[in-house]
């Protein structure tokens, strides 16, 4: 069983490596390896962690490596104080081992207790049925269709907007 904890700035390099790994394994993420190289580095990840009121990273460690990552974020505006957005990724070598569920439990509990969030949002590619099933297992409901969630290799991809009331 993976060890789940809140990431610290010293974990930024491991988070970067995890993001590079998982983005090479699937197109179900909002970023590609090229995107990461262009827009992210360890310093930007570490800087994002410095404001725990707007972003918190949860990591799943196995054998000293990050095999799962969840990012909880919210806008720094009072009108958005009680909602947050969630992103989750798990290394393909660890799929179907409960790591996504462990991350979901930790993030939902933390968001409710520490940020007093009333609702969580996430978006997911319409065809990513495994992820949709995971989110539904934790009480997320599909609240809308997103005709153009992202464009992958020149192809527009539709998505679903999901929401969980806390």
From TrEMBL:
Domain of life (superkingdom): Bacteria
Alphabetized GO MF terms: acyltransferase activity, transferring groups other than amino-acyl groups
Keyword Cell membrane appears in the UniProt entry: no
Keywords, ordered alphabetically: Acyltransferase, Transferase
InterPro entries: Acyl_CoA_acyltransferase, GNAT_dom
CDD domains: NAT_SF
Domain spans labelled N-acetyltransferase: 2-166
PANTHER family: N-ACETYLTRANSFERASE (PTHR43072), UPF0039 PROTEIN C11D3.02C (PTHR43072:SF23)
UniProt-recorded name of the protein: Acetyltransferase, GNAT family
Lineage of producing organism: Bacteria, Bacillati, Bacillota, Bacilli, Lactobacillales
């Amino acid at each position: 069983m993976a060890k789940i904890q809140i990431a610290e700035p010293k974990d930024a390099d491991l988070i970067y490596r995890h993001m590079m790994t998982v983005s090479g394994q699937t197109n179900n993420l909002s970023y590609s390896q090229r995107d990461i190289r262009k827009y992210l580095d360890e310093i930007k990840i570490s800087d994002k962690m410095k404001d725990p009121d707007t972003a918190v990273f949860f990591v799943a460690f196995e054998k000293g490596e990050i095999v799962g990552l969840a990012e909880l974020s919210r806008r720094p505006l009072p009108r958005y104080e009680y909602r947050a957005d969630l992103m989750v990724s798990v290394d393909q070598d660890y799929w179907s081992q409960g790591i996504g569920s462990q991350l979901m439990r930790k993030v939902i509990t933390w968001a409710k207790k520490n940020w007093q969030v009333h609702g969580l949002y996430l978006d997911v590619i319409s065809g990513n049925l495994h992820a949709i099933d995971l989110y539904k297992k934790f009480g997320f409901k599909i609240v809308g269709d997103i005709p153009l969630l992202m464009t992958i290799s020149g192809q527009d991809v539709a998505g679903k907007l999901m929401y969980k009331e806390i």
